[in-house]
Amino acid sequence: MIGYVTVGARDIPKAAKFYDALAGVMNVPRLMGSEDENFIAWGTQDAAGFGILKPFDGGPVSVGNGVMVALMAESPEQVDQIYKTALANGGTDEGAPGPRGEGGFYAAYFRDLDGHKLNAFCMVAPS
Q1: Is the pLDDT of residue 65 over 90?
Q2: Any idea what the Cα angle at residue 8 is, between residues 4 and 21, rounded to 5°?
């Protein structure tokens, strides 16, 4: 149902480096845009994409309270790697990797360089 999600970025080249690192862990390429265009999107033709941009109205970048982008990972190990990569590239911790609840949901939470909250998650067989 969702085609793509975008978040604002104050510094496109710095944000691009952060998201290129995460996309690399997930083996997801840049789909369109560039630092010069003030817009970059990552994804594939058969799944929802993710993008960063300078706000169209020229206003300041802000973080939506209650808004979070969830990145689907293939395994708990990939969740761990995405989380470590985010922190190594300037992201901040919002919840270390681990199981959540009893339904097999494994997740890690972090914020990007502009304060946007993200989550890397996968579903595993409940133990």
Answers
A1: no
A2: 75
